[in-house]
Design goal:
This protein is mainly β. Helices cover about 5% and strands about 45% of the residues. The chain starts with 7 loop residues before the first strand and ends with a strand.
Protein backbone atom coordinates (compact mmCIF):
# COMPACT_ATOMS: atom_id res chain seq x y z
CA UNK A 1 0.00 0.00 0.00
CA UNK A 2 1.54 3.26 -1.05
CA UNK A 3 1.97 6.15 1.35
CA UNK A 4 0.23 9.37 0.45
CA UNK A 5 0.98 12.57 2.30
CA UNK A 6 -1.56 13.55 4.92
CA UNK A 7 -2.23 17.19 5.47
CA UNK A 8 -4.81 19.24 7.23
CA UNK A 9 -6.60 21.72 4.98
CA UNK A 10 -6.53 25.15 6.55
CA UNK A 11 -9.82 26.17 8.10
CA UNK A 12 -10.41 29.78 9.11
CA UNK A 13 -13.24 30.11 11.61
CA UNK A 14 -15.18 33.15 12.70
CA UNK A 15 -17.43 34.43 15.49
CA UNK A 16 -20.82 35.88 14.51
CA UNK A 17 -21.78 39.44 15.39
CA UNK A 18 -23.64 42.39 13.98
CA UNK A 19 -22.35 45.83 13.18
CA UNK A 20 -23.25 48.91 11.19
CA UNK A 21 -21.91 49.37 7.70
CA UNK A 22 -18.90 51.68 7.97
CA UNK A 23 -15.60 51.77 6.07
CA UNK A 24 -16.13 50.48 2.54
CA UNK A 25 -12.51 50.81 1.40
CA UNK A 26 -11.73 47.24 2.48
CA UNK A 27 -14.56 45.61 0.50
CA UNK A 28 -13.03 43.12 -1.93
CA UNK A 29 -16.26 41.88 -3.47
CA UNK A 30 -20.03 42.06 -3.20
CA UNK A 31 -21.63 38.64 -3.54
CA UNK A 32 -25.28 38.20 -4.51
CA UNK A 33 -26.99 34.85 -3.89
CA UNK A 34 -30.22 34.27 -5.82
CA UNK A 35 -32.16 31.15 -4.72
CA UNK A 36 -34.03 31.05 -8.02
CA UNK A 37 -37.47 29.48 -7.94
CA UNK A 38 -36.65 27.13 -5.06
CA UNK A 39 -37.03 27.54 -1.32
CA UNK A 40 -33.69 27.11 0.44
CA UNK A 41 -32.83 25.97 3.95
CA UNK A 42 -29.28 25.97 5.34
CA UNK A 43 -27.78 25.57 1.88
CA UNK A 44 -23.99 25.09 1.52
CA UNK A 45 -22.38 27.65 -0.80
CA UNK A 46 -18.92 27.98 -2.31
CA UNK A 47 -17.03 30.19 -4.76
CA UNK A 48 -13.50 30.28 -6.14
CA UNK A 49 -11.37 32.85 -4.31
CA UNK A 50 -8.83 32.89 -7.11
CA UNK A 51 -11.39 34.65 -9.30
CA UNK A 52 -11.77 37.42 -6.71
CA UNK A 53 -8.62 38.18 -4.75
CA UNK A 54 -5.08 37.12 -3.95
CA UNK A 55 -5.44 38.28 -0.32
CA UNK A 56 -4.40 35.56 2.14
CA UNK A 57 -7.26 33.68 3.81
CA UNK A 58 -6.15 34.83 7.25
CA UNK A 59 -7.10 38.37 6.23
CA UNK A 60 -10.60 37.70 4.91
CA UNK A 61 -14.00 38.06 6.53
CA UNK A 62 -17.48 37.60 5.12
CA UNK A 63 -20.57 39.57 6.16
CA UNK A 64 -24.21 39.44 5.13
CA UNK A 65 -25.79 42.83 4.54
CA UNK A 66 -29.18 42.88 6.31
CA UNK A 67 -31.09 46.18 6.55
CA UNK A 68 -27.85 48.14 6.23
CA UNK A 69 -26.20 46.16 9.02
CA UNK A 70 -23.32 43.73 8.61
CA UNK A 71 -23.86 40.25 10.07
CA UNK A 72 -20.67 38.26 10.38
CA UNK A 73 -20.62 34.85 8.67
CA UNK A 74 -18.73 31.69 9.58
CA UNK A 75 -16.60 30.61 6.64
CA UNK A 76 -14.16 27.87 5.74
CA UNK A 77 -11.54 27.45 3.04
CA UNK A 78 -10.38 24.51 0.95
CA UNK A 79 -7.40 24.17 -1.34
CA UNK A 80 -6.88 22.12 -4.47
CA UNK A 81 -6.18 23.42 -7.91
CA UNK A 82 -8.03 26.54 -6.72
CA UNK A 83 -8.77 28.21 -3.39
CA UNK A 84 -12.43 28.01 -2.41
CA UNK A 85 -14.47 30.02 0.07
CA UNK A 86 -17.33 28.12 1.72
CA UNK A 87 -20.24 29.41 3.79
CA UNK A 88 -23.84 28.63 4.62
CA UNK A 89 -26.98 30.30 3.32
CA UNK A 90 -28.40 29.89 6.79
CA UNK A 91 -32.04 29.71 7.78
CA UNK A 92 -34.93 29.78 5.35
CA UNK A 93 -34.66 31.67 2.05
CA UNK A 94 -37.82 32.18 0.03
CA UNK A 95 -37.81 31.76 -3.76
CA UNK A 96 -36.61 34.89 -5.55
CA UNK A 97 -35.24 36.56 -2.39
CA UNK A 98 -31.67 37.64 -3.20
CA UNK A 99 -29.27 37.85 -0.28
CA UNK A 100 -26.20 40.11 -0.33
CA UNK A 101 -22.78 39.39 1.18
CA UNK A 102 -19.58 41.41 1.39
CA UNK A 103 -16.10 39.91 1.37
CA UNK A 104 -13.75 42.23 3.25
CA UNK A 105 -10.06 42.46 3.94
CA UNK A 106 -9.89 42.18 7.73
CA UNK A 107 -7.99 39.98 10.14
CA UNK A 108 -9.71 36.72 11.01
CA UNK A 109 -10.91 35.49 14.40
CA UNK A 110 -10.61 31.80 15.21
CA UNK A 111 -13.20 29.65 16.99
CA UNK A 112 -13.60 25.94 17.61
CA UNK A 113 -14.32 23.40 14.88
CA UNK A 114 -17.90 22.12 14.67
CA UNK A 115 -17.13 19.24 12.31
CA UNK A 116 -13.95 17.32 13.00
CA UNK A 117 -12.10 14.33 11.54
CA UNK A 118 -10.61 11.95 14.10
CA UNK A 119 -7.84 9.62 13.03
CA UNK A 120 -7.89 6.15 14.55
CA UNK A 121 -5.60 3.19 13.98
CA UNK A 122 -7.44 1.78 10.96
CA UNK A 123 -10.16 4.35 10.31
CA UNK A 124 -11.21 7.99 10.21
CA UNK A 125 -14.29 9.13 12.11
CA UNK A 126 -16.09 12.34 11.14
CA UNK A 127 -17.91 13.92 14.08
CA UNK A 128 -20.48 16.69 14.47
CA UNK A 129 -19.46 18.13 17.80
CA UNK A 130 -19.01 15.00 19.92
CA UNK A 131 -21.49 12.93 17.89
CA UNK A 132 -20.11 10.49 15.29
CA UNK A 133 -21.60 10.80 11.80
CA UNK A 134 -19.68 8.08 9.94
CA UNK A 135 -16.55 6.01 9.93
CA UNK A 136 -14.36 5.53 6.86
CA UNK A 137 -12.33 2.31 7.14
CA UNK A 138 -8.81 2.69 5.79
CA UNK A 139 -7.58 -0.56 7.29
CA UNK A 140 -8.41 -4.03 5.99
CA UNK A 141 -11.48 -5.56 7.61
CA UNK A 142 -11.44 -9.35 7.56
CA UNK A 143 -14.55 -11.55 7.44
CA UNK A 144 -15.68 -13.46 10.52
CA UNK A 145 -13.88 -16.64 11.49
CA UNK A 146 -14.79 -19.51 9.22
CA UNK A 147 -15.05 -17.44 6.04
CA UNK A 148 -12.38 -17.20 3.34
CA UNK A 149 -10.10 -14.19 3.82
CA UNK A 150 -10.63 -13.37 0.14
CA UNK A 151 -13.67 -11.44 1.40
CA UNK A 152 -11.45 -8.88 3.16
CA UNK A 153 -11.90 -5.24 2.17
CA UNK A 154 -10.65 -1.72 2.91
CA UNK A 155 -11.92 1.66 1.70
CA UNK A 156 -15.60 1.81 2.71
CA UNK A 157 -18.01 3.65 5.02
CA UNK A 158 -19.38 1.84 8.07
CA UNK A 159 -20.94 2.61 10.43
CA UNK A 160 -23.17 5.37 9.09
CA UNK A 161 -25.02 6.79 12.07
CA UNK A 162 -28.40 8.45 12.38
CA UNK A 163 -28.45 11.63 14.49
CA UNK A 164 -30.18 9.57 17.20
CA UNK A 165 -27.13 7.29 17.30
CA UNK A 166 -28.57 4.29 15.46
CA UNK A 167 -26.27 2.45 13.05
CA UNK A 168 -27.87 2.44 9.58
CA UNK A 169 -25.38 0.37 7.57
CA UNK A 170 -24.35 -3.28 7.57
CA UNK A 171 -21.21 -5.15 6.50
CA UNK A 172 -20.37 -8.78 5.82
CA UNK A 173 -23.93 -10.11 6.09
CA UNK A 174 -24.14 -13.89 5.80
CA UNK A 175 -26.17 -13.66 2.60
CA UNK A 176 -23.58 -11.43 0.86
CA UNK A 177 -20.23 -11.50 2.66
CA UNK A 178 -18.79 -8.99 0.14
CA UNK A 179 -21.25 -6.21 1.07
CA UNK A 180 -19.59 -3.31 2.89
CA UNK A 181 -21.86 -0.52 4.17
CA UNK A 182 -21.45 2.24 1.59
CA UNK A 183 -19.01 1.22 -1.16
CA UNK A 184 -18.64 1.48 -4.93
CA UNK A 185 -17.12 -1.40 -6.93
CA UNK A 186 -17.98 -2.19 -10.55
CA UNK A 187 -19.15 -5.68 -11.41
CA UNK A 188 -18.65 -6.46 -15.08
CA UNK A 189 -15.75 -4.64 -16.72
CA UNK A 190 -13.30 -5.24 -19.54
CA UNK A 191 -9.63 -4.38 -18.99
CA UNK A 192 -6.85 -5.36 -21.40
CA UNK A 193 -9.34 -7.58 -23.21
CA UNK A 194 -10.24 -9.60 -20.10
CA UNK A 195 -13.34 -9.50 -17.90
CA UNK A 196 -12.60 -8.12 -14.44
CA UNK A 197 -15.15 -8.21 -11.60
CA UNK A 198 -14.21 -5.73 -8.86
CA UNK A 199 -17.39 -6.52 -6.90
CA UNK A 200 -17.56 -10.27 -6.32
CA UNK A 201 -14.40 -10.75 -4.30
CA UNK A 202 -14.62 -14.53 -4.29
CA UNK A 203 -13.78 -14.60 -8.01
CA UNK A 204 -10.33 -13.19 -7.30
CA UNK A 205 -10.45 -11.12 -10.51
CA UNK A 206 -10.38 -7.67 -8.93
CA UNK A 207 -10.85 -5.65 -5.78
CA UNK A 208 -10.90 -2.03 -4.61
CA UNK A 209 -8.54 -1.05 -1.80
CA UNK A 210 -7.53 2.02 0.19
CA UNK A 211 -4.42 3.64 -1.24
CA UNK A 212 -3.79 6.58 1.10
CA UNK A 213 -5.12 9.89 2.38
CA UNK A 214 -4.80 12.97 0.19
CA UNK A 215 -6.28 15.59 2.53
CA UNK A 216 -8.29 16.28 5.66
CA UNK A 217 -10.28 19.46 6.27
CA UNK A 218 -12.27 20.36 9.37
CA UNK A 219 -13.98 23.48 10.61
CA UNK A 220 -17.23 25.25 11.44
CA UNK A 221 -19.05 24.33 8.21
CA UNK A 222 -17.82 20.88 7.21
CA UNK A 223 -15.34 18.11 7.81
CA UNK A 224 -13.93 16.24 4.84
CA UNK A 225 -11.68 13.34 4.02
CA UNK A 226 -10.11 12.86 0.60
CA UNK A 227 -8.73 9.38 -0.07
CA UNK A 228 -7.23 7.36 -2.89
CA UNK A 229 -8.84 4.09 -3.96
CA UNK A 230 -7.01 1.63 -6.17
CA UNK A 231 -9.11 -0.58 -8.46
CA UNK A 232 -6.79 -3.57 -8.75
CA UNK A 233 -6.98 -6.21 -11.51
CA UNK A 234 -5.73 -9.75 -10.79
CA UNK A 235 -4.97 -9.01 -7.10
CA UNK A 236 -2.55 -11.21 -5.17
CA UNK A 237 -1.05 -12.57 -8.39
CA UNK A 238 2.19 -11.91 -10.30
CA UNK A 239 0.15 -9.97 -12.85
CA UNK A 240 -1.49 -7.64 -10.29
CA UNK A 241 -1.88 -4.09 -11.55
CA UNK A 242 -3.91 -0.98 -10.88
CA UNK A 243 -6.55 -0.57 -13.59
CA UNK A 244 -8.03 2.66 -12.24
CA UNK A 245 -7.31 5.22 -9.55
CA UNK A 246 -10.17 6.93 -7.77
CA UNK A 247 -9.95 10.12 -5.73
CA UNK A 248 -12.89 10.01 -3.32
CA UNK A 249 -14.01 12.88 -1.11
CA UNK A 250 -16.40 12.40 1.81
CA UNK A 251 -17.71 15.70 3.17
CA UNK A 252 -20.01 16.13 6.17
CA UNK A 253 -21.75 19.48 6.56
CA UNK A 254 -22.75 21.24 9.77
CA UNK A 255 -26.55 21.32 10.00
CA UNK A 256 -29.29 21.09 12.60
CA UNK A 257 -29.22 18.40 15.27
CA UNK A 258 -31.78 16.17 13.53
CA UNK A 259 -29.93 15.67 10.22
CA UNK A 260 -26.52 14.84 8.79
CA UNK A 261 -25.74 16.07 5.25
CA UNK A 262 -23.00 14.14 3.43
CA UNK A 263 -21.49 14.61 -0.03
CA UNK A 264 -19.58 11.75 -1.66
CA UNK A 265 -17.64 12.62 -4.79
CA UNK A 266 -15.50 10.26 -6.88
CA UNK A 267 -13.03 11.19 -9.61
CA UNK A 268 -12.26 8.12 -11.71
CA UNK A 269 -8.92 8.00 -13.55
CA UNK A 270 -8.33 4.79 -15.54
CA UNK A 271 -4.70 3.83 -16.11
CA UNK A 272 -5.66 2.29 -19.44
CA UNK A 273 -8.96 2.04 -21.28
CA UNK A 274 -11.56 0.46 -19.01
CA UNK A 275 -15.02 -0.54 -20.19
CA UNK A 276 -17.75 -0.67 -17.56
CA UNK A 277 -20.03 -3.13 -19.27
CA UNK A 278 -23.82 -3.06 -19.08
CA UNK A 279 -24.82 -5.00 -15.97
CA UNK A 280 -27.69 -4.92 -13.51
CA UNK A 281 -25.64 -3.74 -10.52
CA UNK A 282 -22.43 -1.86 -9.80
CA UNK A 283 -21.47 1.65 -8.72
CA UNK A 284 -22.72 3.56 -5.67
CA UNK A 285 -24.24 1.18 -3.11
CA UNK A 286 -25.81 1.08 0.35
CA UNK A 287 -26.38 -2.10 2.36
CA UNK A 288 -28.69 -0.99 5.12
CA UNK A 289 -28.82 -2.18 8.71
CA UNK A 290 -30.17 -5.69 9.24
CA UNK A 291 -32.54 -4.20 11.82
CA UNK A 292 -34.64 -2.97 8.90
CA UNK A 293 -36.92 -5.60 7.40
CA UNK A 294 -40.17 -5.55 5.42
CA UNK A 295 -41.99 -5.43 8.76
CA UNK A 296 -40.53 -2.21 10.18
CA UNK A 297 -39.16 -0.17 7.25
CA UNK A 298 -40.12 1.24 3.88
CA UNK A 299 -38.68 2.70 0.69
CA UNK A 300 -39.82 5.00 -2.12
CA UNK A 301 -38.28 6.94 -5.01
CA UNK A 302 -38.55 10.36 -6.63
CA UNK A 303 -40.82 8.75 -9.22
CA UNK A 304 -43.23 7.50 -6.56
CA UNK A 305 -42.20 3.83 -6.76
CA UNK A 306 -42.02 1.51 -3.77
CA UNK A 307 -39.39 -1.19 -3.22
CA UNK A 308 -41.36 -3.82 -5.14
CA UNK A 309 -41.50 -1.65 -8.27
CA UNK A 310 -38.28 0.42 -8.20
CA UNK A 311 -35.78 -2.16 -9.41
CA UNK A 312 -34.48 -1.23 -12.87
CA UNK A 313 -36.27 2.12 -12.88
CA UNK A 314 -34.61 5.53 -12.94
CA UNK A 315 -34.61 7.82 -9.91
CA UNK A 316 -33.21 11.23 -9.00
CA UNK A 317 -33.42 10.29 -5.33
CA UNK A 318 -34.74 7.56 -3.08
CA UNK A 319 -35.52 7.20 0.63
CA UNK A 320 -35.19 4.23 2.96
CA UNK A 321 -36.49 4.65 6.50
CA UNK A 322 -37.83 2.72 9.45
CA UNK A 323 -37.69 1.90 13.12
CA UNK A 324 -34.43 1.57 15.03
CA UNK A 325 -33.73 0.78 18.69
CA UNK A 326 -33.20 4.55 19.16
CA UNK A 327 -36.34 5.64 17.28
CA UNK A 328 -37.34 6.29 13.66
CA UNK A 329 -34.59 7.28 11.21
CA UNK A 330 -33.89 7.25 7.51
CA UNK A 331 -31.56 7.98 4.60
CA UNK A 332 -32.25 10.15 1.56
CA UNK A 333 -29.89 9.18 -1.30
CA UNK A 334 -29.46 11.60 -4.23
CA UNK A 335 -27.73 11.40 -7.60
CA UNK A 336 -26.39 14.52 -9.29
CA UNK A 337 -27.60 15.59 -12.78
CA UNK A 338 -23.98 15.65 -14.03
CA UNK A 339 -23.59 11.92 -13.37
CA UNK A 340 -23.32 9.54 -16.28
CA UNK A 341 -26.73 8.22 -17.42
CA UNK A 342 -28.67 10.46 -15.02
CA UNK A 343 -31.29 9.84 -13.71
CA UNK A 344 -29.51 6.61 -12.90
CA UNK A 345 -31.30 3.28 -12.93
CA UNK A 346 -31.63 1.55 -9.57
CA UNK A 347 -30.83 -1.94 -8.43
CA UNK A 348 -33.00 -2.58 -5.37
CA UNK A 349 -34.33 -5.59 -3.51
CA UNK A 350 -38.04 -6.24 -3.06
CA UNK A 351 -39.89 -6.84 0.17
CA UNK A 352 -39.34 -10.60 -0.19
CA UNK A 353 -35.51 -10.32 -0.32
CA UNK A 354 -33.15 -12.37 1.84
CA UNK A 355 -35.48 -15.28 2.32
CA UNK A 356 -38.50 -13.10 3.02
CA UNK A 357 -36.85 -10.88 5.63
CA UNK A 358 -36.84 -7.91 3.28
CA UNK A 359 -33.37 -6.47 3.93
CA UNK A 360 -32.52 -3.29 1.99
CA UNK A 361 -29.92 -3.12 -0.77
CA UNK A 362 -29.93 0.15 -2.77
CA UNK A 363 -27.67 0.80 -5.76
CA UNK A 364 -27.48 3.78 -8.12
CA UNK A 365 -26.27 1.78 -11.12
CA UNK A 366 -25.34 4.04 -14.09
CA UNK A 367 -24.34 1.03 -16.21
CA UNK A 368 -27.48 -0.98 -15.54
CA UNK A 369 -28.82 -0.39 -19.06
CA UNK A 370 -25.76 0.81 -20.99
CA UNK A 371 -21.98 0.47 -21.02
CA UNK A 372 -19.61 3.28 -20.05
CA UNK A 373 -16.24 3.51 -21.79
CA UNK A 374 -13.55 5.18 -19.68
CA UNK A 375 -10.48 6.37 -21.60
CA UNK A 376 -7.09 6.77 -19.96
CA UNK A 377 -6.63 10.39 -21.07
CA UNK A 378 -9.70 11.62 -19.17
CA UNK A 379 -11.06 11.92 -15.64
CA UNK A 380 -14.69 11.07 -14.85
CA UNK A 381 -16.78 12.40 -11.97
CA UNK A 382 -19.66 10.89 -10.02
CA UNK A 383 -21.41 12.88 -7.28
CA UNK A 384 -23.91 11.76 -4.66
CA UNK A 385 -25.48 13.39 -1.62
CA UNK A 386 -26.93 11.66 1.44
CA UNK A 387 -29.18 13.21 4.07
CA UNK A 388 -29.48 11.11 7.22
CA UNK A 389 -32.42 12.08 9.39
CA UNK A 390 -34.35 11.24 12.54
CA UNK A 391 -38.08 10.70 12.23
CA UNK A 392 -39.78 10.78 8.83
CA UNK A 393 -39.48 12.70 5.56
CA UNK A 394 -42.06 13.41 2.88
CA UNK A 395 -41.72 13.93 -0.86
CA UNK A 396 -41.93 17.73 -0.63
CA UNK A 397 -38.95 17.92 1.73
CA UNK A 398 -36.96 15.39 -0.30
CA UNK A 399 -37.53 17.43 -3.47
CA UNK A 400 -36.39 20.63 -1.73
CA UNK A 401 -33.17 19.00 -0.55
CA UNK A 402 -32.48 17.47 -3.97
CA UNK A 403 -33.02 20.87 -5.63
CA UNK A 404 -30.34 22.35 -3.36
CA UNK A 405 -27.97 19.67 -4.67
CA UNK A 406 -28.97 19.66 -8.33
CA UNK A 407 -29.93 23.32 -8.85
CA UNK A 408 -27.84 25.38 -6.40
CA UNK A 409 -28.47 29.10 -5.91
CA UNK A 410 -26.98 31.42 -8.50
CA UNK A 411 -23.99 33.34 -7.12
CA UNK A 412 -22.92 36.63 -8.73
CA UNK A 413 -19.71 38.42 -7.72
CA UNK A 414 -19.02 42.12 -8.24
CA UNK A 415 -15.50 43.29 -7.50
Amino acid sequence: MKAVALFLGLSILFFTFCGTRADETNILATISVNPGSYERSDTPLSISLDDITSVNEENLRLYELIENELVFQAVQFSFGEERFLHWLLDGQTEPGKTRIFELRKESALKVSKNISVKREEDAYVILSGDIPVLQYNSGIVYPPEGYDTIYRRSGFIHPLFAPNGAVLTNIQPEDHMHHYGIWNPWTKTTFRGEEIDFWNLAKGEGRVRFGGVASVNQGPLFGSLQVLHEHVAWPDSPGEMIAMNELKEIRVFNRNENTFLIDIKSRLSPVEKLILEEYRYGGFVLRATDYWTSENSDFFTSEGLDRDHADGERARWCIVFGDTPEGEAGILMMGHPSNYNHPEPLRTWGSDATGGRGDHFINFSPTRNTQWILDSDRNYMLRYRILVFDGEMDTIEAERIWNDFSHPPVITVEE
